[in-house]
Amino acid sequence: MSGFAGGACSGLRVLELGGGMAGPMVGMLLADNGADVVKLEPPAGDWARPLHGFAMWNRGKRSVVLDLRRYGDREAALRLAAGADVVIDSLAPGAAAALGFGPATLRAANPALVHCSITGFGSRHRPSSTRAYEGVVAAVTGRFNDLDRLNGLSPRAGRERPVFSRAPIGSYGAAQLATQAILAALIDRARTGTGCAFETSLVRGAAAFLMRQELQVLTTSPPSVPPTVHRGIELTFLTAKCADGRHIQMCARQDHHFRNWMLALGLEDVLEDPRYARAPMGIERMEDIDALEARIRERMLRRTQAEWMYLFHEVYDVGADPFLTPEEFLNHPQMTGNGRVVEVDDPTFGRVRMVGPLVLFSESRVNVGRPAPHLGEHTAEVLAEPWLAGPATGPAETSGRPPLHGFTVLELGYFIAGPLAGVLLAELGARVIKIEPPEGDPYRRTGLQAAKFLHGKESVTLDLKSDSGRTALRALVARADVLCHSFRPGVAERLGMDEPTVRAINPDLVYVYASSYGSKGPGAGRIAFHSTPNALSGAGILQAGEGNPPVDDSHPDPGAGLAVATAILLGLHARVIHGSGQYVETSMLATIGHIHSDDLVIPLAGRCWTPSDPGQHGLGVFYRLYWVGGRWLFVAAVTDADRRGLAAALGHPEWASDPGEATPDAVAAALETAGEAAKRWVAEVDHRHFDEWLRDKGFLRPSDHPAFGPHLRPPDRLEVSPWPSPGGRASSPGEHTEQVLAELALDPDR
Predict the structure, then answer these.
(1) In what order do the strands lie in the sheet with 631-636?
(2) Whole-structure pTM over 0.85, yes or no?
């Protein structure tokens, strides 16, 4: 299509203030897709510059050093903001406004500006005086209390205490939510001529990862999923040791995959045993599940990892993946074969390999060639450019309608990734029609857990294996703006919903494939669940703790859903610019690479990693959980200045230059007597689980489920929003079939 001359964000000018991961990742996503992103840094620079992740989060940008405390520098920054399309502010709450650079000031001069603020806890919730690093937010909100066998817990650590999680889901989640809101606001601006200001936070980013929580109104309510079902799920995601000492991550949750697993293991008798007639999730007694797990583990020890992988992938259709290191992940054929790995010459780390684009397009360009800039490298260049007034003018206030009002999204996908993306788009105002088979999305079997992935949608049941079902789908495609699916390659073709077929009906359609491994390569057709990217990326090894067997973790599923929503909005924004639809693809492997990006920037000269300690307390003595005075504390001294300040407060200034002398026991003893002096670097760990903390702090909102009744839904994705609060309860399977098909003048009985 000759109309596509650049990236999905070509022509946008973006100013970025702040450091770390969340805000800079937003700028990176926009820069990768063609935006001109100028990073405004103070004279000392972004505090995250020493981190390997900085090389990825800031690729493709230009660095300008300005001190907003100085009148001349502030005036220069205001001139740039007057000609910008987007400002990303990840400074502390109110810091930019105190310097005369807040959203009200900037939008008064440039009504077309889209202003996004990202904070740790939100401007209305700041329960800690400690700097809002990822670990601090997790500690204060109780996220360290949520780990179990499906969520990063090593059996050697135990669940009687908080456990450190190294996955920065708050930062990644906030970055995705902010990017989605920015793109939606820009799409709306194309219609209204006006921009807007909004805010999100690491707390809300982490809340977007809520997955297995039921969010019941009353904590005394019995769970809709019995404990034996949960234990059966754990069994299907077993981390199994093989004969060569290496491990495999299983993912055999679906009934037929579990059956194939038993056949591959030579445990055919299990399939005939009445105790396991409803396996894997319908086994009635815990002791029977425990006995089966012991038998499975014994069988897995009889072959090497490579031998099992051959059987699982080439002979039986069983979901299984080897646990890899970060280097092995970047060499994986599904990463390299799908264009998800790039090499750049970084000014700090030299030639490095890193994860490439989050989203691929058939027409829009993605450019990840330019490395992160030196501090102030482009100051003179940018300040000499004529930054004109904003591209459009309009009323100071928005229209009051959500930004995606009028767009229709067809969701064809099960479980988490596609359905979470649909919820996020519905919350931004899109009409989302969930197309389900007659038996419904299989994730509905988890009961109230599934509600959070159903809110705000219309459910239509169609048998796409029938002529009448495919006729109805074609009629829906003709009126839609987006079609998103997550089926394995070949399924879409069999169901008549492959890209050439549906875009022949509607050339303006944005066709989004939410893949697992990617659409190309030898593993493209394999089954995958949350466990797949966790095992392949190295995350399962690094999270487990030094010397421990690797662990499963479920964050890749909602992380993928967040990426799918961003991919859809990039596709829609490209359509706004270029006037035509296209094919868009993301993958769970690319997603996990972005979540764990700080571990996946690898210099060609080599790199050493810091795994969690054996007890999963944290990463070294200065970023770690401690039991002090009858309570759990989290210490977060990240920068050199942090470490000097904390070491002095603890009465051991020598620890800043010689951390080897600072053993965990010594630091814990010093914390006992430090008191208020160390408060700036220490946060108390909340005793509640994350969902309980959210409930008690008023983040959760009431909703209703057609089968399970009143419950609570996850927080709004934005802390401060110019748009109406999203509504729409969870739908029952096929609830809107007659209504939607009547709009298409089709007979629902067919």
Answers:
(1) 623-628, 631-636, 682-684
(2) yes
- Name the amino acid, one letter, at 555: H
- Which CATH number goes with the domain that contains 239? 3.30.1540.10
Which amino acid type is present at position 210? L
Q: Is residue 93 part of a domain?
A: no
Residues sharing a CB contact under 8 Å with residue 726, sequence separation 6 or more, in sequence order: 402, 426, 427, 428, 455, 456, 716
In a domain, 300, yes or no: yes
What is the pLDDT averaged over residues 665-679?
A: 93
- pLDDT of res. 2: 47
Query: Which residue from 482, 397, 36, 480 is spatially nearest to 189, judged by alpha carbons?
Result: 397
Q: Quote the mean pLDDT of the chain.
A: 93
> Mapping DSSP to helix (H, G, I), strand (E, B) and coil, where does residue 275 land?
helix
E-strand stretches of 437-491: 457-461, 482-485
Length of the chain in residues, anyone? 750
**What residue type is assigned to position 505 of the chain?**
I
Q: Which two tokens stand for residue 527?
A: 């089954």
Cα 389 to Cα 13, 109, 192, 386: the distances in Å are 11, 9, 17, 10
Is 336 within a domain? no
Cis bond upstream, residue 280 (ω within 30): yes
Percent of the chain with pLDDT over 90: 84
Question: Considering the domain boundaries, does residue 256 fall inside one?
Answer: yes
Whether 259 contacts 271, CB under 8 Å: yes
526: its two tokens: 């394999």
- Return d(Cα 151, Cα 159) in angstroms, integer: 12
**pLDDT (tens digit per residue) in 31-84:** 999 999 999 999 999 999 999 999 999 999 999 999 999 999 999 999 999 999
Give the structural domain span for 314: 227-320
Give how many domains the chain has, as a whole number. 1
Q: CA nearest 471: which of 491, 500, 501, 441?
A: 501
φ and ψ of 483, to 5 deg = -125, 130
